[in-house]
Amino acid sequence: MTSPIPSPPGVPFLGHVNTIDRDLPVKSIDLLAQQYGEIYQLSAFGQKRIVVSSRDLVNEVSDEKRFRKKVSGGLKEVRNAAGDGLFTAFGPEEQNWGIAHRLLMPCFGTVNILNMYDDMMDVTSQLVLKWERFGAREMIDPAADFTRLTLDAICLCAMSYRLNSFYREEPHPFATAMTDFLIESGRRSRRLTLVQAIMSGTNAKYEEDQRIMGELVSDILEDHRANPPAKPDLVQVMLTGRDKETGLGLSDASIKHNLLTFLIAGHETTSGMLTFTIYFLLKNPEALRKLREEVDTKLGDRPMGVQDVNKFPYLLAVMRESLRLGPTAPGRVVTPIEDTVLAGKYAVEKGVPIIIGIYTSHRDPKVWGEDADKFRPERMLDGKFEALPPNAWQPFGYGSRGCIGRPFAWQEAQIALVTIMQRFDLVMHDPTYELELKQTLTIKPHNFYIHALPRKNIPRLLAIPSSTLLTADSAHERTSSGVTISGDASSLHPLYVLYGSNTGTSEAFAQRLASAAASHGFHASLGTLDSATSHLPKDGPVLIVTASFEGQPSDNAKHFVEWLENVKDDACTGIKYAVFGCGNKDWVNTYQRIPMLIDRLLDEHDATRLVDRGEGDAAAAEFFETFDRWEKTVWEKLGLEFGAPTKVGTDGFEIKTVSAGTERSEILRQKGTALGTVVENKILTAPGAPVKRHIEFDLPEGMTYRTGDYLAILPVNPDRVVRRAIVRLGLSAEQEIEINSVGPTSLPIKKPISIYHLLSGYVELQQPATTRDLDILLSAKNSPTSTQALQDLSSNYSEKVFKKRLSVLDILEENKDIEVSLSTMLKMLPSMRIRQYSISSSPLWNAERVSLTLSIVDAPALSGRAEPFLGVASTFLAGLRPGDKVQLAVRASNAAFHPPSDLSIPLVMICAGSGLAPMRGFLQERAMQKLAGRDVAKSLLFFGCRSPQEDFLYGDSDLKEWHELGIVDIRPAFSRSPTDSENCRYVQDRIRKDKDLVATAFDEGAKFYVCGAGKIAAGVKQAIVDYIKQRKMTDEAAAVAVFDQLMEGRYATDIFE
């Protein structure tokens, strides 16, 4: 008895043509596997295809007695250029394949590959030379340079021909033509013949690309005949070899086909593997550290030699793990030799294409565990790789049609990676970058850029913004130079300001220190902590401002922390430092973990602490005041320590008027690659209730997300607030100015910008004033009345400024006789921060679209102003209309805050208000999987809001539908209408009421997710602890210990203010 193969809904005749992303089919295939399971069926124009993606099924279809390779789709189109070459031949039925296979296999034997070592190192040295000459400030596209490396290597090593790609500004014409040819081959395979015939321009380009590729092949062949190499190579074997089985050689046409095959397959996959490896290493500092230690220990300062190949166990594990998560050949196609049955129940007819989803099968949790998406080279060490089930790891194809050049690629990659590890420290250009893919026939990282810092013991800092969303066009001048020098820098003491920041707060504090340095007699260099990894400066004091994110370092501090945790005892001798930590006490268990760790480790490793660590709690009234006090202490200590003179009266900015505002300036911060498009923006709540909105965005091309991720938004200040500031400063909104700064700054410098754009997009206008701001205002020209008012605010800062959120602008409006210039105002205002919102959708619903569910802040002003207080980001988002463009980026959430891949695990989700956002995404994902025919465990949703009539978000739509589908049991708590929720006002009350349901879910292996304000998370935990106390008959401390033990790995929180 056979079972039907699951299949997504299709369109008559077209089938699933529009289901698969035309530019990134691998992602569509992976998402469909998540939704439909290990096997599903697609059709296009009446032609059936089956996709398998579990290790078990991949293993089954790898039986060459039952299945054989099928050349179809895009690969079949590649035959237009590569003919019956090794990769594109239909199989043994084409005689040339057998001849070429038997002739060329020995060329890739161990001895022959080792003999290619010197040529491989020759080309690698060209890459190294280029990166060294470019220097640390140059942004490098590793995929492009690795393409140069691997293309030159296959040409030199296998064909004795030099392309000299590193001596060209642009990629070699072959590489460009090949990429376009492969992309178009894939697209042609999905077009109707009639449609293809009328695309004359596309067809002409396709023919031209083939001509360019063929031209290089002919040049190599002609050069080889005219100048035979001193040692035999691949071309020589093809020209002179004779097949022992048939006695035949290869024709010129077959030689050209195979040369082209090696040029394509011999470099494209290896360049992708190298790029993936660099990406995974930079995202995983521990792995990078271990690899560097292995290389340094084995080689020291000597270059790698041929005797070192395959002698780096951790490197080999890194490469295997990189190929697992980033298999450059993400799939292959086979077909049954006869009618067959898969998995004992799915009937498949002879000749039907079976797409093997290697990309997905390499993440099979049955083989790799629930952390299958995590890069962990240790799973490939100590015999674990050899003990894997058959065909669990299959990046090089399989059997007789597997990759013939695997030994070549394996050695080449080792040489490149070892040499790079020896010579450079690598840093991501965008520390928040998450993997984007580009697909031709292969896949590789897209829009991925790095900086290569030569490994020398000299300070070289990179002030890379916390997010590319914060990067203005003009900011490139700041980040590309790394150091801003003005005036007579030789008379100033060097000072280094380092930051670790994701959201921009720590970065803003660091910029404030750097900007103020000149007025205290120091010349400041600003950089990320990662840019100082392994070479903390010793010729000047080092000021560090950093934060913890759920107990972990920020994206641009991970490598620094990993290094500091593993350095030798006296590695920091001679370094003088001070640390300020930003944090939030709502994260009780991890509050200030990273700042404390850095401060302690620097001290333990013999560095000199200049002042005690500063500690700022973002949830407390004195957050900014704490930094002000610490900063004051730092400058006093530095003045005593270094005798640096203080320059009174400088505010760090020089501003000149460019025009009276007759022309508007270009909007600086928007880059097309990060622009999302608003699709829908609607209110979810009833009139009179606090507004909550549902907003949908189409993501920028190539941007992807996981269920549970964040969307980072770069907002602008509300128009009303901007105009208040302009009026108070006595300026014109249209007036254009140009800013020059004596220190590093996030403001746009050295180009015209209008006052309106400056104040709307680059600074925070509504942040509470700090005690430092009050001191600046007191030093300004003002009246006795204003002086008294400012002194009163300063003396009662917590009550009268912080708690009332009194901003600098509020104070200036209340005290109109205080005279401040625009430059002084800018000195006081922090830079604009990005805001992160939990995504409330699943990519299984739409991989190219995200939704947000958020609260709109429009409430009475705590400051006492008659006008309501408007939240910066929520007001910006509320005003968006369909079609509007928004700068945004996907940010990964805590690794634990994603639904498990095992659908038999129930979810217990607890939230209130807009905290429903990630839970909606979880449920939408489970609903899509249920609708695809998969078995899904029933989950529990505890949701708190006001009443069923006011703000029971999605209560009459999605939640109702998913409840009826049987995937969720909804347990609401209505604070304004408790009689509608069994007299439960809050979610913690509801948990106590339904404690038996919670206990049952726990016993069934449920994972718990909490999203909301800190008091909600605390209340939920207390409710569960109370239940444990009651059930176990124990005290509070013992119950908390039991909670921590039981919930380890099963309890994830996402807390917001």
UniProtKB/TrEMBL annotation:
Residues 495-635 form the Flavodoxin-like domain. The keyword Metal-binding applies. One of its GO terms (molecular function) is NADPH-hemoprotein reductase activity. Residues 671-900 form the FAD-binding FR-type domain. Keywords: FAD, Flavoprotein, FMN, Heme, Iron, Metal-binding, Monooxygenase, NADP, Oxidoreductase, Transport. Its cofactor is heme; FMN; FAD. This is Bifunctional P-450/NADPH-P450 reductase. In the N-terminal section; belongs to the cytochrome P450 family. The keyword Acetylation does not apply. Signal peptide: none annotated.
